[in-house]
Amino acid sequence: MNIIVKNKNIEKSIKIDETTTLLEILRKNGFNIPALCGGNGTCGKCKIKILTKIPVATKLEKEHLSESELNSGIRLSCLHKPDDGMIIEINDKKNYNILSDFDVKKLYNKVISSNKKYSIAVDIGTTTVAIAFLNLCTGEIIYNKTFLNPQQQYGADVISRIDYINNSKTNTLTKLIVDNIDNSIKECCIKNKISSDEIGDIIIVGNTTMLYILQNLNPHELAVSPFTATYKDMKTYKYCDLFSSYLNSKVILLPCVSAYIGADITSGMYFLGKELIDKKILFIDLGTNGEIVLSNGKNIYCASAAAGPAFEGACIKDGVGSIDGAICNIKIEDKEIKYNTINNKEPVGICGSAIIDITAEVIKNSLINETGKLENKKIQITKDISFYQKDIREVQLAKSAIYSGIKVLLDEAGININEIEKLYLAGGFGKHINIENACKVGIIPSAMKDKSETVGNSSLGGAVKYLLNTSSRDKVYQIINKCRYVELSMDKRFNNYFIENMGF
């Protein structure tokens, strides 16, 4: 049996020896098809266009796809198997805008003495990966490389990826991330004419699950109560132990606090520095996992609010990541919806910052009641893009998780919100969020509106800072030793706050 796949100007004939879904076939043949639900048909993102005989649409497809999409042959690849001679069209080459910058003022302007000229910092996010190549002689970043985490096609969040590993019993996800990082480092060396023996230490950060997968460790224990992380200490490897034999460098994985406060947050805390230890600081990484850190000047309290991927567009019907054409901000003026898109391209969907904007705007314009019920079933933004009642519910779940997590940590720390001196927002979503609208929706307390500051990719920033300071290891463990992890899923206060904060 053969099928033909068209991807822009490329056409590929694929011979199939097994009867499996089109999604699995495309994955095995190197096509990056997003299946944020793990291929269960519930996210509606693994769209393909069938150009030959179009199969009857399933019930799930009728829920996720518009009438025009269904009529044009758009189907979900996870729900259909191939026919001999089938021709399908895909587009897996989207331009993603991935955050790799950070507030350089928070780095020590100090160049360390080293017998190597360069070092590398790597931030493995659930959704994106950022790599910085550092010149140790000048302290400057000479090259940035960013890409989508290729594991995303197996699920938008860590739980779906853990499920995939447990069910498939393969190292597919490990191989994907290892190969992509390895190839990116080789690419940088070639482009910048850097020889392999010039590269010193490589620092890698990421959430606990991402680091487990990188090390080819089964992350099953992270997904079941009591959510313990056996492997959370700082690890040092030879480059060839994790990647190819291309470099002779040492690879250091920064330590995690717990199963759901990973090395990315450790790195972010280190990036903030002494201020986090000495002052009353709130630090939130508004990504897929929604990590919250609160310092009362003595101890540091941490929690993961499990906000889910709503803020990154994954479980929003017309939601997309930060790709060209994503609607990135929205305003309603005189009942007219006005918006901008990333790089001024034709609109293709709504990304996280605009999801908060549209929610805030429907509240301001009384198009929604305090329970979250829309006046109409949807808010039409463009001919093909809308914001639905179900989307509002996803926002309510996510925003209540973050806000309720903050309240529990305030209780733990024994302080009130007005005592907080500063709120630092990290991550791509945090970088572009409208603070006033975030307060209106109820993601962050209104008392923080004028005390908020965005710090960009603090995880990558902390990794770079680690490379520039000889006392980094001691300072990282000084932070780790002050951390008190709070498991929200088992906290009655969180459940009560969560119900209280669902409304607008």
Model description:
The protein has about 500 residues and is α/β, with parallel strands linked by helices. Among the domains are: about 1-90, Ubiquitin-like (UB roll) (Roll); about 105-275, 2-Layer Sandwich (Nucleotidyltransferase, domain 5). It has helices spanning about 20-30, 60-65, 65-70, 160-170, 170-190, 210-215, 240, 265-270, 275-280, 350-365, 390-415, 425-430, 435-440, 460-470, 470-480, 490-500, and strands at about 1-5, 10-15, 45-50, 75, 85-90, 120-125, 130-135, 140-150, 200-205, 235-240, 250-255, 280-285, 290-295, 300-305, 325-335, 335-340, 350, 380, 385-390, 420-425, 450-455, 485. The strands form five sheets. A six-stranded mixed sheet has the order 8-7-6-9-11-10, sandwiched between helices. Strand 13 (about 290-295) and strand 14 (about 300-305) form a beta hairpin. Helix 8 packs across helix 14 and helix 11 crosses helix 16. The longest helix is centred in the last third of the chain and has 25 residues, at about 390-415. The radius of gyration is 23 Å and the shape is globular. The termini are far apart.
